[in-house]
Amino acid sequence: MIISTLKVLELNKRYNLVENLDQREVQNPEGVGIDIRAGKIYRIIGEGFLGVTDRKSSDTEKIADIEKGDKEITMKPGDYVLVKTIEKFNVPAEKIQIEEGSEPMYLSLHVYPRSTLQRCGIYLMATKTDPGYTGELTFALSNLGNRPFRLELGARFANIVFLQVIGDIQRAYEGQWKGGRVSTGGMEKQV
């Protein structure tokens, strides 16, 4: 079940679910999700590998960083970039009380593109976020259109929906992407 944005903001005061939220989301949220913003942009520059026990993500090169004063990037048709959020997420590893008197539940986050991306030929590739994850989130954008697309850093490009998880889980997320890491930086064992 989707948790309303107002309820997420209420839970955020107790559990610090999202850090660095845009004031627009705090003061005047819209719909059932929270818009998240582009903070850093990376280009893939190396080869990747996914094996049964080992993996190596592609090396990346940071091409824009809002903290360094970068303003925007232009994606040509066919370009593929990784976008790291300004917001940092702290998805509790344990069940939390969502409504007073209700049974505690785990949370999971699901990501959707803002429709402006689709209307401009930009495809957002995203994943769910499991209980136990902390850090910024990294997504991929690909320009599938036939025209350049400009993305301003700080722009709201995706929408996060908080969901209740019914039942128990074997274990919370302990993965190697925790903390907002963008690349493995070499071959490593999978957990």
Concise account of the structure shown:
The chain is mainly beta and about 190 residues long. It has 3 helices and 13 strands.
What is the element layout, followed by pairings?
Elements (H helix, E strand, L loop, with lengths): L4 H11 L2 E2 L3 H5 L6 E11 L4 E2 L3 E3 L3 E6 L6 E4 L4 E11 L15 E8 L1 H5 L2 E4 L8 E10 L5 E4 L3 E10 L22 E2 L2
Antiparallel strand pairs: 1-7, 2-5, 2-7, 2-12, 3-4, 4-13, 6-11, 7-10, 8-12, 9-10
Description:
11% of the residues lie in helices and 40% in strands. The protein is mainly beta and 191 residues long. It has a single domain, classed as Deoxyuridine 5'-Triphosphate Nucleotidohydrolase, Chain A (Distorted Sandwich). Strands 1, 2, 5, 7, 8, 9, 10 and 12 form an 8-stranded antiparallel beta sheet that branches. Strands 3-4-13 form a 3-stranded antiparallel beta sheet, with no helix packed on it. A two-stranded antiparallel ribbon has the order 6-11. Strand 3 (49-50) and strand 4 form a beta hairpin. The longest helix is centred in the first third of the chain and has 11 residues, at 5-15. It is globular. The mean pLDDT is 95.
